[in-house]
Write a structure and sequence with these properties.
By secondary structure, the protein is α/β, with parallel strands linked by helices. It has one domain (3-108): HprK N-terminal domain-like (Udp-n-acetylmuramoylalanyl-d-glutamate--2,6- Diaminopimelate Ligase, Chain: A, domain 1, 3-Layer(aba) Sandwich), CATH 3.40.1390.20. The chain contains five helices and five strands. It has a five-stranded mixed sheet with strand order 1-5-4-3-2, sandwiched between helices. The protein starts with a helix and ends with a helix.
Length: 110
Amino acid sequence: MKIREAAAMLGAELLQEQFEDTELSGAYTSDLLSDVMANARDGGALVTIQAHKNTVAVATLVNISLIILCNNRPIQDDMLEAAKDEGIAVIRTKENQFTVSGRLYAALKD
């Protein structure tokens, strides 16, 4: 599943659109950025509520392609600018992390 397909499937708002629409290799759900650095998979999505610039820095370190912000979290402009600079897609959904993770798992497991 490509990034734009995942956004559409989740009914999410695309906040940062300057990225390469690549295939997702999986997803990781966490709000603890050190946990993301240790366990997230290359080319995957990050499901989180951490809507700030440091999230983009961590995503860059582990080569995350998509940041999915849950619970309609407000987002800072500097996060979107950093994501644009790094070519990382950012989407936002009203759903919680449990729901988003389950839907992504079902869509990506095959």
